Fold these 3 entries.
Entry 1:
Amino acid sequence: METMTATATVQASARRLFPNLSLDRIWAQLLMEQAQKKLIKYRTMTRQFEAKYGQDFSAFRQKILASEPTFEVEQDYFDWEMAVTGMNDMAEEINHLSGLVQHL
């Protein structure tokens, strides 16, 4: 019973916040906004690493794989790799959701 109440509350809020949109379009729009926020976060991280190391990830990766990095540099490598992967994933997700929103 509690789930039904929560669902009804969410639907009512969605209809107030996004008048004249279907629930499917509202969901797609909210998901796209979240993906855009994450894309911005990952791009910011990538730019910070590029500024810190003065190179792009590809060049940094080659340098790291050919050396024995310190713990800090190795951690930056993993964080940077996650940011690059996240950026690509979010760009793909935004593209997918954009197509969906246009058809709803």
Note: The mean pLDDT is 93.
Entry 2:
Amino acid sequence: MIVYMDTSVVLSRLLGQKNALEPWGGWDKVLTSVLTSVEFLRTIDRLRLENNIDDRERTELHGSFRVLWETMCRVPLAESILRRAAEPFPTVLGTLDALHLASALIGAQDLESPPCILTHDEQLARAASAMGFEVAGTT
């Protein structure tokens, strides 16, 4: 199975949150946007500055993320993705989610079948589903 993983799934898994996606792994290919790295690192830095994690936890999270990041096929924020993210979607969608969905759409163009969208974000899940994607990770 080929999947597109957004940042919410990465964060919930690496932070050990109750909503972490199960089962984990065993995918043939994992796509994600380069945006995932920015979102992940900004969130971890914010958690550290708010004293929700300490320096040791920050270092461990960065290491775990680097390992996961190396296994993922990263979709660059190309002009075509920025253009598609600026176009209308069938449901309400924020900017970062629009960038993720556009990345999934364009990143999947050369695939035999569309990826399953892995997200914990309700708006992204709703928009992806409305566009015909299989979605996992939301309740």
Note: The domain at 2-136 is CATH 3.40.50.1010 (Rossmann fold).
Entry 3:
Amino acid sequence: MSLFTEQEIEFLRRHRVGRLATVGGAGQPHVVPTLYRLVDGVFELGAHALKGRGQERLYLRHMRVNPRVAFVVDDLTVDPWYPRGITVKGTAIVHDEGGEHLSPRWGPKWVEIKPDWVSSWGIDTQPMDPAVPRTVGGRTDPA
């Protein structure tokens, strides 16, 4: 069962880029924009294969230590002022192979984010209405 409403799913399908937040073992946060797609309520993220870079991306290193992540997809219309977006929190799974299924130009590594917390604004509500978080099983914010 998806945590997303039909309007939220449509919003996510119309957008391509979100911002991924991770925290590594030293407790330092990191945010990076990334392409994504939504498949059956799960986010799939990949990246272009970078040549000549021997070190794994920081967000992947973070997720191997701490799989809890946050992911935001949003936009803004300025006339009239209308912010909209979705924040999810969940568990990330790093896959070392198969990223090419997301795009033929991408490298083998890819990430699945399985949300267990979601909050949106301006999609099912007016843009300045307070967001109401939803969780799997009705739990409080999993932090």
Note: The helical segments are 6-14, 58-65.
